[in-house]
Amino acid sequence: MNTFFVSLLPVLLGLVLAPLLLGVIHRTKAVFAGRHGSPLLQAYSDLAKLLRKGAVYSRTTTWVFRAAPVIGLASVVSVMVLLPITGNSAPLSFVGDLIVFIYVLGLMRFFTVVAALDTGSSFEGMGASREVHFSALAEPAIVVGLVALASATGFLSLSGIFSAMSPTTWVVAGPALALVLAALFIVFLAENSRIPIDDPNTHLELTMIHEVMILDYSGPDLALVLYAAALKLWVLGALIVNVALSPLGLNGIRGVGLFVAGMLVLAVIVGCVESMMARSSFLKVPRLLVTAIALSGIAFMLIVRFTA
Amino acid sequence: MTLLQDTLLVALILTSFGMLVSGRLGAYIRMGALQGVMIGLLPLVVGRATPTLHVVFVAAAMIGLKGLVFPYLLFRALRESDTKREMNPFVGHVPSVFFGILALLGSFWMDARLGFPIHSSAALVIPVAFTTIMIGLFLIVTRRTALSQVIGFLVLENGIYAFGLAIVYEVPILLELGVLMDVFVAVFVMGIAIYHINREFDHIDIDRLNTLRG
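The joint structure predicted for all components is written out below.
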């Protein structure tokens, strides 16, 4: 029983703490703006409130619209099962699970987009088109980045990659790892629709991406969508924190503590980025994402040429 | 030493990619200055452990010229022309970055094929030099304003210098200073040329120079 609980720890930790990251980001932004800000646990209260309410469905929607939030949440939770936490391997790991990791997240995106199209609203169609455009550029960056990590460590599963990392990995392939880290951070901002790619606070249909696709959801469905988005933030953030902190070689409870601290620091960094940068215009976003592709491409070539 | 050298070389590639992705002429000049400083530091970390006095002297001259004098000259030319951005380059910014990735891939392949007789500690220098040369040429061919062509020329020169550094470690000091002098005169003359183009035509768009003024 005890070992079962311990092996599920990475998943439980994410399920419980993910909305807290949103609170930390909001608080950081509030401090920058000189405001007091909402409570750190605001996201939990929002979810609890939404779950108590009833849902309204438009008559144009079909079963796709109702299925999408459930499929989204299910995909992101199943991805969490594959994701290790600094020094503790994931509950499930097999050769090639990094491909599953990327494409199950892709399934979540696919259903969000299809559900947005299902509403028949032209605004949501616009959001869907932007989402697909930007994620088509973000996906090569994360795929090449993970492949670079795999060839640096010689493992094809996420748990294997992160447990094989040691301080010598940074000495041998330091610049390449730093490039992968930068590329993953850009993808992290893009996939979670943060500034400078998208503004999570805007409610002007012409400028938003993720928010516009979920306009028609209400009540428990909206709660599922928001919770899944928070979990996605956690999952992609965990990838960055793992690359940065795994080489320290801590394990057990100390690894978990270090990991949580790393996630909170990451949330503060996101808050700082959002406070200091403006959202870039849609025409410039592809340049940013192509930069991410270039960063992980350079990292991959360096690793293949010099460590393989 | 090799970690430091690798970091420097990767940062060097990144400045070239920064020029491919950025559209602001001010950013071009700043990236060029940064790249010049890094090229100047390169002989201090490549190859042997303790650099001789003459290597240090050339490095200092290089950093002073490429990191301070050139940016000053180019920023002055930029202020006088009323241009801020590289509008509509012949090849857009996103395809440019893909060209950069291909150039890097080609350089690694070429380096593996040619097999230069150099010490293995400097193995990364050759592909980085090739990439820098190709990106410099690419900037000259695809950008419209006269100023970005000067920057492209400087990037090209940086690449050739890095290549020479890996092949022959110690060049006679007179030769190195001569090359530096030539580059200085080139940038100086091009700065004056930009000034005159701007005064005659009210823009520094080289693609529009072949039409007659009405």
